[in-house]
Design brief:
The chain is mainly α and 169 residues long. It contains 5 helices and no strands. Helix 1 packs antiparallel against helix 2. The radius of gyration is 20 Å and the shape is elongated.
Length: 169
């Protein structure tokens, strides 16, 4: 069983790193697209059609959702630690798992409804409302993938708490 958990952790870690690379690539693409759009708009009076929509519907989604689980494992998500040092240890041992269970529930809902939306968008051929009319199902899938990876990592932190290292900043 322990070998299976370690193998699964490695597979999830690899998918996570690929997603993080996609997130970083999206930041670079967004920077280049915005720069080209502004340059085209200001210098040539000709913006890039659909650049705002591509940024909103694809690049922002991939930047946020593809990086969530990696950031979670690194302990990089925003946490309110101002009062933690004043709370007794037994209370923290009780509240931290409760917060993780709430997070797991919340992101499970995002995963479930994101998957439903992805399937619906594929079934009906949902496209962007901009002039390019590109398909939206891949963007919904990116959201679903990122939320599902985060659910796996939150579940891991609940059932195998020693695997996730939190740093107090």
């Amino acid at each position: 069983m322990n070998n299976f958990i370690n193998a699964l952790d490695k597979v999830i870690g690899l998918i996570e790193k690929i997603c993080m690379a996609g997130s970083v690539l999206s930041v670079v693409l967004m920077m280049l697209l915005v720069t080209a759009d502004v340059t085209g708009r200001k210098l040539f009076n000709h913006p890039i059609p659909g650049s705002v929509e591509i940024n909103e519907e694809y690049l922002m989604v991939s930047i946020v959702y593809l990086s969530m689980s990696y950031v979670y494992v690194q302990g990089g998500h925003v946490r309110v630690t101002l009062f933690r040092r004043f709370l007794p240890g037994p209370f923290l041992k009780l509240i931290d798992p409760c917060l993780n269970i709430f997070g797991l529930f919340f992101f499970s809902l995002i995963t479930f409804f994101g998957w439903e939306k992805t399937l619906t968008a594929m079934q009906f051929g949902e496209t962007s409302s901009c002039i390019l009319a590109y398909p939206l199902a891949p963007a919904y899938f990116l959201l679903t993938l990122g939320a599902a990876l985060l659910c796996l990592r939150i579940a891991e932190s609940i059932f195998l708490p020693a695997k996730i290292k939190w740093e107090e900043h």
